[in-house]
Amino acid sequence: MDEFDNPVLAADSSSIATEVVDSGNVARQSISAISGTGNTRTLTLGAINVNPGSYRLKFSGVGSGSILSRAFTVNSNLPSVIHPLQGPTDVATGATPSPTISFEIRDNFGNKITTGENVTVTLSLLSADGLTSLGTTGLANNVVSSTNGTVEFGSLTITRAPGTYKLRATATYGGSTAFGGNVDSAATFKVTNSAPASLQITNSIGSDKAADFELDSSQYLVSAATDFVIPSTGDYTVEAWVKPESFADFRQIFSQGDGNGRITPI
User: Fold this and answer.
1) Which of 45-54, 133-142, 215-224, 228-237 has the highest mean pLDDT?
2) Are 53 and 22 in contact (CB under 8 A)?
3) Is the pTM of this model over 0.85?
4) Are residues 65 and 85 in the same domain?
5) Where among 28, 54, 74 does a domain terminate?
6) In angstroms, rounded to a whole number, what is the distance separating the alpha carbons of residues 80 and 173?
7) Between β-strands 189-192 and 91-92, what pairing exists: parallel, antiparallel or unpaired?
């Protein structure tokens, strides 16, 4: 039958090829060949592996031309694959990775799923060798739902301590059904120090000593065994008194903390 349900005559010796074509009559899949005699032919369809959308079957070898079937719709299969589009890149702590980390949700035939089940992807951190899960501590905006089959982490921020890491993506659909397993980033990425937010003046030279600090013409005294933190904005000067004949031990004038309790002498 053609699309108007009219019988189509075909030579007994002909073999009729079958294709799935889109709305522009562009072939998307060759699925079968029909054999038989006269106007009665048998077609057993295999899997139609095309992206969701509207299609027709195109039968070629019918007389001197071809015919099209009625239009039919191919719906999405269930989500099966979390396919990485853009992996993580080096980022300063507290910043958002650029380009945006993104994934495509696909079915088990590799087709992008644009409709149907709502998919949620969660990112977590791994050690650099990928062997140790570090959880989601230090990640913000790391849970995102798909939009037309794509998941983009445009607001993700990473505040983990500077170091080398990998990312792991896991996904669910329908609220709780997991799929796709663990998808780990192929390459590592680095979290680096961001711009200093403050300076820490540390008195570590004994209880009988003190340090003077001047900021915008105001005098600050760091008393014995007391740390003092100031913002990193504005000009400042540091004065130090050194006893040159005594070099028995290291003496720290002031330091910049890295936010994790570690001090780097300046």
Assistant:
1) 133-142
2) yes
3) no
4) no
5) 74
6) 10
7) parallel
Sequence-distant (6+) residues with CB within 8 A of 248 are none
DSSP character for 76? P
Question: Which structural domain range is residue 210 located in?
Answer: 198-265
pLDDT of 6-64, one tens digit each? 655 554 435 667 888 888 778 777 776 555 555 566 666 667 777 778 888 887 766 66
| Strand ranges in 14-89 using DSSP code E only, listed in sequence order | 16-21, 27-37, 40-42, 53-62, 65-68, 72-74, 81-86
Give the whole-angstrom CA distance, residue 193 versus residue 258: 8
> Cis peptide before 99, with omega less than 30 degrees from 0?
yes
Structure tokens at 166: 């990998």
Burial label, 252 (beta-carbon count in 10 A; 0-12, 13-18, 19+): middle
Number of domains in the chain: 3
Question: What is the largest distance, in Å, between two alpha-carbon atoms of the chain?
Answer: 113
**207 & 133 share domain:** no
Which residue from 15, 52, 17, 10 is spatially nearest to 31, judged by alpha carbons? 17
Closest CA to 176 of 118, 134, 123: 118
Residue type, 125: L
Using alpha carbons, select from 181, 126, 192 the residue that is nearest to residue 159: 192
Q: Choose the final residue of a domain: 177, 192, 207.
A: 192
